[in-house]
Amino acid sequence: MTPRSTVRLGTTLALIALGIAGACTVSSSAVASTTTTLVGISPNDSGSIGFIDAVSGLDVAPEIPDVAFFPSTPSDGLSNTSGLAFNPVDGKLYAMDYACELIQIDLVTGVSTPYATAPSTPTPGSECEGLAINKAGKFFAGNGAGSPNPEALVYFDTDEWYTISPNTFLQINWMAYNPTNDTLVFNDTDGSTSTVKSVSAEDGSSNLTTLGADTHFLSSASIDPAGQVYAGYWGDYLYSGPASTFPAGMTEAPGVSLQSYWVAAVPQSDNGGGGGDLPNTGASASQVGIIGGGAALLLLGGLVLATIRRFSARR
Fold first, then answer.
1. Where are the domains of the chain?
2. Which residue in 194, 183, 96 sits closest to 141, CA to CA?
3. Alpha-carbon span 117 to 102, nearest angstrom
4. Burial class (CB in 10 A: 0-12, 13-18, 19+), 214
5. Contact partners, residue 296, CB within 8 Å, separation at least 6
6. Hey, is 62 helix, strand or coil?
7. Looking at the predicted structure, is the pLDDT value of residue 58 above 70?
8. How far is it, in rounded angstroms, from Cα 84 to Cα 95?
9. Interhelix angle for 285-314 vs 3-31, to 10°?
10. C-alpha angle with apex 267: 262 to 269, nearest 5 degrees?
11. What is the C-alpha to C-alpha distance for residues 153 and 315, in angstroms, rounded to an integer?
């Protein structure tokens, strides 16, 4: 092999290595991506819990084992669920019942862990409905004594619920945390009409805003980190649309889901396992590091070889 052809070989190896390194960079970005998995609970179906296909709106088999329950009503499973939300701080799924109890649910085993058993009764009433968890892991819900009594927003801290003043509402059925603008989104209904409103997720009271009419009379809603809303309709249909226009712009999925009563969007990161105990579906960070390291060595070797041959050719 002539010195000139050797130089060409070294240069070619270096370019190939650069291409591999670039591909590894792209792979690393893909590994760091986040997808959304929908989890649903249906009180209408004996409190069953499972996954929902975000496109078709159909339940995805198999269901999560139906072994979760609320401490005060163990024989009822999850049939008393009144709220469902993903906690972005610990990556776990939480459910709430009408007695304001909170449980954490493992999405692989279906086992529940009590988070708040028979907590203090907040004012104005003993019935909690609609659960949301903000970016700091703070729990919010709607609370009242039933129509026609007014309801209020409450927050949870150290095994107790506290009332947030001064706003009051007619009746709150569902609530969601919007991570794109750090707000709590919820419905306010008199039974015949329903309106979607929002407040700051920092204090639960400031910047109260009316977003529009809840024309679908939703039973639940959840918003993923990308700003996509997934909403359930009483165990029948799944709706989705952008949070920027919500409640307008919602599209109904073609399928029917028994689980689409209480719906929660669970972010799943491909590079570190899924949130809410979901399985890891992508290459690990160590795999990317090994590939990237090999590409770097190949790049260095090619450059060294080209440099040595170039100096040899001058002699």
1. 3-29+285-314, 34-269
2. 96
3. 7
4. buried
5. 17, 21
6. strand
7. yes
8. 4
9. 160
10. 155
11. 83
pLDDT digit string, tens, across residues 71-107: 999 999 999 999 999 999 999 999 999 999 999 999 9
SS3 285: helix
- Segment 187-221, tens digit of pLDDT: 999 989 999 999 999 999 999 999 999 999 999 99
Average pLDDT estimate for 167-188: 96
Select the highest-mean-pLDDT range: 6-20, 117-131, 169-183: 169-183
The pair of structure tokens assigned to 122 is: 């907040």
Element (H, E) at 162: strand 160-169
C-beta of residue 95 within 8 angstroms of C-beta of residue 80? no
298 — phi, psi (to 5°)? -65, -40
Q: Does residue 294 have a pLDDT over 90?
A: no
- Tell me, which fold does domain 34-269 have in CATH? Neuraminidase (2.120.10)
- Residue 236 backbone dihedrals phi, psi, to 5 degrees: -125, -55
Report whether 95 contacts 106 (CB < 8 A).
Answer: no
Q: Quick count: other Cβ atoms within 10 Å of Cβ 187? A: 27
The SS3 of residue 57 is coil
- For tokens 């307008």, name the residue: 248
